[in-house]
Specification:
Largest sheet: none
Number of helices: 10
Order of helices and strands: HHHHHHHHHH
InterPro entries: ARM-like, ARM-type_fold
Oligomer: single chain
Structural class: mainly alpha
Protein name: HEAT repeat domain-containing protein
Length: 184
């Protein structure tokens, strides 16, 4: 099954670059495991006192397992962080995770963060919204996406405009997901 979970976590944490290749290789290895041990370790990281560990936990949970077997257990963790977290990096990672999970239960959390004062969080929201709108698309979610398409930050507005176009053009196409957003 590869390297032990703790070794992979330590490797990811040792790479201080949030987009570093060592970090993301370790995360990908953890995500591919898709087992209870990895889920438990990631959930524990989400409750850490350090931002780096919370971000890592969220990044692991966002794509844990081929068929996302822990989505029902992951959603409450991510929704709690979305409601209680102050750190922009953790919020951004939670929003990207919501987008990867494509679960409409995330929609209230994503809408709540759509008016966040930090552009990075709104950018994550613009990514997540089209993926959690549901089918048919939720009107409140579409309204939030329209608002983000008019955002003062051009990256947020551009990503939201793309998401809005895809959401309205393919409202009856289940499984439509935007590709990963470029790093912010």
């Amino acid at each position: 099954m590869g390297a032990p979970v703790d070794d992979l976590i330590q490797a990811a944490l040792a790479d201080e670059d949030p987009d570093g290749p060592t970090r993301w290789r370790a995360i990908a290895d953890l995500q591919q495991r898709g087992d209870l041990e990895t889920f438990t370790a990631a959930r524990r990281l989400c409750a850490s006192a350090t931002v780096a560990e919370r971000v890592l936990g969220v990044d692991i949970l966002g794509e844990l397992g081929r068929d996302r077997p822990f989505t029902d257990k992951t959603m409450p963790v991510l929704r709690y962080l979305a409601a209680s977290e102050d750190d922009t990096r953790v919020l951004y990672s939670a929003l990207i995770a919501f987008g990867h999970l494509r679960d409409p239960r995330a929609l209230p959390s994503v809408i709540d963060l759509s008016t966040h004062p930090e552009a990075t969080v709104r950018y994550g929201t613009a990514y997540a919204l089209p993926n959690v709108l549901g089918h048919p698309a939720d009107p409140a979610g579409l309204a939030a996406l329209r608002r983000l398409a008019e955002d003062e930050d051009t990256d947020v507005a551009d990503w939201a405009s793309l998401g809005l176009t895809l959401a309205t053009a393919h409202t009856n196409t289940p499984g439509q997901q935007l590709s990963d957003p470029p790093s912010r």
